Each structure stands twice: as C-alpha cells, then as structure tokens.
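Work package 3, deliverable 3.1, input record:
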Amino acid sequence: MTGSDGASLALAPKPTPPMWPLTRRPRRVDWRTVIYHTLVIAFGFVMLYPLLWMIGSSFKPPDEVFSTVTSLIPRHPTLENYVQGWAGFGGISFATFFRNSLIYSVVGTILVVSASAVSAYGFARLRFAGRQVFFVLMLLTLMLPIQVQVVPEYIVFSKLGLLNTFWPLLLPRVGGQAFFIFMIMQFIRGIPRELDDAAAIDGCGEVSIFWRIIVPLISPALVTAAIFSFYFTWGDFLSPLIYLNDPRLYTISVALRTFSDPAGVTNWGAIFAMATLALVPVFGVFILFQRYLVHGISTAGLAGR
Amino acid sequence: MASVSRDIALRAPSRSGAAASARRRALRRNLTGYLFIAPWLFGFLAFTLIPITASAALAFTNFNVLSSNLSFVGANNFATMLSDQRFWRAVRATLLFAFVSVPLKLAFALALAMVFNSFRRGVYAYRAAYYAPSIVGASVAVAVVWREMFGKQGPLNGMLAAFGLPTTAWLGDPATAPWSVILLAVWEFGSPMLIFLAGLRQIPSEFYEAAAIDGAGALRRFLAITIPLLTPLIFFNLVLQMIFGFTVFTSAFIISGGTGAPLDSVLLYSLYLYQKGFKDFQMGYAAAMAWALLLVIGCCTALIFRSARFWVHYETDAEAAR
C-alpha cells in the first residue's frame, strides 16, 4: 500500500495534498531535498542517541561502558551482560520479573479493554435516564490525577490484606478506563445506526447487537486500545512500587529500579542489557501494530503522556 | 430516534395497556443501559468517587496506616503545607517543570509535524523514528539510561571533554538537574506531533495557494492559516500535556534516586506526595496534598477552557466568516 517506503514503517494513512504548493520540479539535484534529509537524519540521530547508547553499552564488557562512553559500537562485543543481568538479584532472576510484568500487562489489558468496550457501547448507543450526567462524569475522570485516588485505595487494600498481591493492580481495571471508553465511543458513533436497527428487526437483543454487530466492526479500535493499555501497564511504575514489596512479585519497572540502585551497582553493562530487554516487548508491539497506533492517536488523542 | 422506532417496530402496544407498557419499556431501556455501563459505573464508584471522597475526608485527619491512629485535625494539614519548606520547593520544581516542558514539547511537536507533512521519500520511516522515544519515554528503563547519560562519566560529559569543553556533574547541581527531567519530557513529543500532523493534513491546500497568490510569505501563511486552523488541537494538546506536566513521577523518582535531590530541585509534586504518603506514611497529609493538586489542575483546566473563546478558532467560525 505504501510502496517503496517499506510497508513495515507505513505510519500514515494515504497521502493527501501537500501543505506548501510544489510549483518547481527541477531535474538537477534538488538541494532542498538533500538539506531536508540531512537535517532530519542528523536530528533524528540525536533523538535516538540515548536508546542507541543503551543498546550499544549493553554489549560492552564492564570496563568498556564508561571508558569509551561516547562510542556507540562496542570494541569487544559480548553477551555476558545479558547472562549476568538475567540472573537478577536476591536469587530472583529476570524471568520472574518478566513473567510478573506479562501477567500484569496481559490480564490488565484484557480487563480494561473488554470493560471499556461494553461501557462504550452503553454510552454511545443506549438511551437511559442519567446517561448525560454519567457521560460528563466519565469525561471529568479523564483529567483526574491518580494521586487523589491512590492514598485511600492503598489504605483499603492494606486493610483487606491485599498488599503484595496483584489484586490492587488488576481490580481497578475491571472498570475500564475513561480514555479507552471515549476512544471506542468515537468509533461506535461512526457505525451507521441502520445496522443496529436491521439486527433488531431480525430479533437481536442489545447484547447480541453489541456482540455480533458492533464488536466485529470496532475491532481496530479494540486493538488500538489494547496496544495503549499494554504500554501503560508494562511501563507502570507507581502502582507496583506502592503495592509490591516482595521482590518475587516485582514487575520489570520496579525490578529495574532496584537493580540499578546507584549505591549497589557494580556491573553497568548488565543494567543496560536488562533495560534493553525491558523495552523489547514495547518496540515489538510498536513495529507490529504501528498503523493502529497512529490511528488511535489521531482520532482520540490518546497516549498524551 | 432510531431506537424508539425500533421499539415500536418490535412491540406494537395494545391500546389498553399503552401507558403501562410504555413504562415497562422505559424501565427495560434504563436497565439495559445501566447493565452495559455497569463496569464503568462500578469502577467509578469503587475506584474514583469513593476514594476521592475518602481523600477529602482523610485530608482533615492525621491518619497513619502503620499505627492506625486516626484523629480529626481540622485544617491542620493545609496549615502545615503553607509552612512546609519542602512543599513549596516541590511546588516550585513542578511549576518550573510544567511551564518549561509543556510549551517546549508543543513547539517541537508542531515544528516536526510541519517537517513531516511532506511527501518526500522516507518520511514514514522518519516519523516512526521520531515517535519511538514517546512510547518508551515514561519507562524506568529510559529514566535509568537518562540518569547515566547526564552522569559524571556519562556520554554528555564524554563529548564535552572530547571537544575540550568543561564538564560538570549535571545531576549534582540544583541549577542543571531539573533540566535533565525537562529534557526527558520534551523528548517525548511524539503524540502531540502525530495529533498536529493529522490536523495539518486537514487544512485544504487551496488556502495556502490563495495566500501565496496574494503575496503572503511562508511566515505569514504559517501565522495566518496554519496556527489559527490548528488552535483546536493546540488547545487539546495543551490541556492534556498540562495535566501530564503536573503529575510526572517516574522520571523524577529514578533520576533523583527517589529523593528529589539535589537540594529538592527535582522534587516534583507527585514525588513529594509519594514520600509523604508511602515513605513517612502520613496519609492525611498526602491526601491533603492530593486535593490541593486536584484543585490546581481543576483551576488551570478551567482557565484554559475559559480562555479558549479568545484564541481557539473552530472550523464553523471560519466558514461563517467567509
């Protein structure tokens, strides 16, 4: 669809007319194009430098990390950092931290997206008393800082004896998330009502209209929501930091924080190796699903953080 | 409308019980509606409304989760806040962070959206590369890397030394440490960039052509066409990023090792709230701080919304004016 630019990096929908009128089309070398590419690549390199440095350092032997600090390419590349880093700390390997993060992200994402889809259908299609009020309340929660909720939530969860379990992390997701509800609503609004009505005449109730008509049609929105939810959950730091004190339950974020504590660090290469691994799922999802991402951002302005 | 007609089509009411069946239908409709929004409603009550209300109540107590002490202290927490030096340093650090990082981020986002609103070869790949930092920027992994980038023996100092320039402990100096956190936030300009890009694509090219014929230069076209037509998106991004700016936590936590050091210059509000609530377990004080934050965010949002009619132009206005 996107031709020679490489389908894997097809970030944008189909082209629309350019912003500046292109009147001249010279045959000789277009210096403006050359300058454009040079500047964009140069600045892009500066932008990506921290990530490249992280990856480069993760393959450097320990004594090389800071002695050849400005070089991105290791002189004596090694996988030793990955082996040593994976061993983790306190007898707990990074396999455990990855498993915990995966449980949190996957279960959390499934909960959030399904709850959001059901609620979005209710808000977008059904007419019931109080809908407007609840809709406004839902939008208001968009701008609510998590800090206001976290203190009393912590007290309740600690009184229930649920500290050091995944319950405090997962349970709040049963209610969906205003961001996703709003985004999915926007998609549902784009589906012609006639489809619902036709299904109703054929004898479908609201539940089967939702399940058989709406869900298949909004699957791109659900994928988008799932990707963002995965990102937010995978990177979440505050909640695991507060609720999980047992290292065996640490997610990657909290584990990396402990692992990289400047007071106890001896092997920086191992830290960069584990930091790199922590970002692999994120970039993997990005490369696989980027078209959905751009769509989600430009329709609902998601991931504004 | 449509759903009403659907109900009528499905169940034509008998003449006698018309009123009763209408009531039944309304009841059924409400029930279905609440059934569908039940997940959100549950989450809203259990994890938003009740916690916020509890927060408001807690703010007037000296609750400590460890000792389970609970006594009503009136407005003491708020009074303490006013005289708490660290609180004010946190406020200052947060204001500096928000007021510098948000405009810079939006400026970068807009500038690069314009750069990428082009059909040159490779533009898709560029856009992906420039967006990449935004998907990982809020993670602990990147914050750790960032801390080492600006560390004493990090690559920044390494490069300065290579050019014979003086090096410094960027994160040890309260004058420079906040800028590393600000830079990290600005680095994540990808989302507003994509939003601006979507907006730029919707501006009809005839506008620019007409302006060019009338002799408007590039700057003039930018100021008179691009900016006004993008104001709804600038507004949208501003609100989102401002809320984000007031609540940033991870980067400040990791870069300062959880302390806000040096000299509390990186002690962002959320970080201080975390310290008070979950290190010192002064839950009452933390709840009061949370409410103060909520009020400030509410006021700022309201201010931006109120100011919108002076500077945000909607397409419909433009059409009416033409």
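The CA atoms of residues 182 and 203 of chain A lie 29 Å apart.
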